[in-house]
């Protein structure tokens, strides 16, 4: 019997997979952490720091992909969260900078993971809008709201079984709720601003 040889080969294979898995998890956690920092830079309007951070993220993602490709059937699932965060950071910056969104293929991100990241960016856009409202910056509020609506419309059009789209439908439902809350906040803010201007104009009139 060759059982000993069979299980020796199995052990060698699993040892290598386990090593790759541990390295992927470590790299993924680092990438997620860097994406979170990149998003904070955007909210703080620290765009040079954001661009520097994204350059590091791009390189880390490239290294992560190389490791996953050693055994994609087993390790591919570990890309999900990291790629979502990467897509979210890049999409958030593109939207507030009024630049074209990069394609998933341009970032080497799986399209589904990209879409999941877009669903999450709606929450960041709400936070961005609320920060602008608190700082009495109203010029871009309608643009932000329209961007949120555009993303939601596209997400909602993805009508496939959950076995294929994973938790995209749930994220889309959450996004709808976030948009409706933001729409109310933006409407009130714009109405208050109009009232303020009317009062100021009235006070200046002879």
What does this 3D model show about the protein?
By secondary structure, the chain is mainly α. The chain has two domains: 1-109, Methane Monooxygenase Hydroxylase, Chain G, domain 1 (Up-down Bundle), CATH 1.20.58; 118-206, Methane Monooxygenase Hydroxylase, Chain G, domain 1. 82% of the residues lie in helices and 0% in strands. It is built from nine helices and no strands. Helix 7 packs antiparallel against helix 9. It is elongated, with a radius of gyration of 22 Å. The N and C termini lie far apart (106 Å). The relative contact order is 0.08.
List the main descriptive attributes of the protein structure presented here.
Methane Monooxygenase Hydroxylase, Chain G, domain 1, 206 residues, mainly alpha
Q: How far do the termini sit from each other?
A: 106 Å
> Mean pLDDT score, rounded?
91
CATH class of the largest domain, named Mainly Alpha
- Overall CATH architecture of the largest domain: Up-down Bundle
For the secondary structure, the number of strands is 0
Strand content: under 5%
Taking Cα atoms only, what radius of gyration do you get, to the nearest Å? 22 Å
């Amino acid at each position: 019997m060759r059982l000993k040889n069979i299980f020796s080969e199995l052990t060698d294979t699993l040892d290598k997979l386990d090593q790759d898995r541990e390295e992927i998890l470590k790299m993924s956690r680092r990438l997620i952490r860097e994406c979170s920092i990149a998003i904070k830079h955007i909210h703080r309007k620290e765009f040079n720091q954001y661009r520097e951070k994204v350059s590091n993220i791009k390189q880390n993602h490239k290294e992560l992909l190389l490791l996953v490709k050693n055994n994609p059937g087993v390790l591919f699932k570990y890309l999900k969260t990291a790629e979502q965060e990467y897509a979210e950071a890049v999409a958030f910056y593109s939207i507030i900078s009024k630049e074209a969104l990069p394609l998933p293929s341009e970032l080497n991100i799986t399209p589904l993971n990209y879409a999941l990241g877009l669903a999450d960016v709606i929450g960041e856009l709400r936070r961005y809008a609320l920060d602008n409202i608190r700082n009495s910056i109203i010029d871009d509020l309608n643009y932000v709201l329209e961007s949120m609506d555009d993303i939601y419309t596209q997400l909602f059009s993805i009508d496939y079984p959950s076995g294929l789209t994973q938790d995209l439908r749930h994220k889309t439902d959450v996004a709808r709720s976030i948009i409706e809350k933001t729409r109310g906040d933006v409407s009130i803010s714009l109405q208050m601003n109009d009232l303020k201007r009317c009062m100021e104009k009235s006070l200046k009139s002879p």
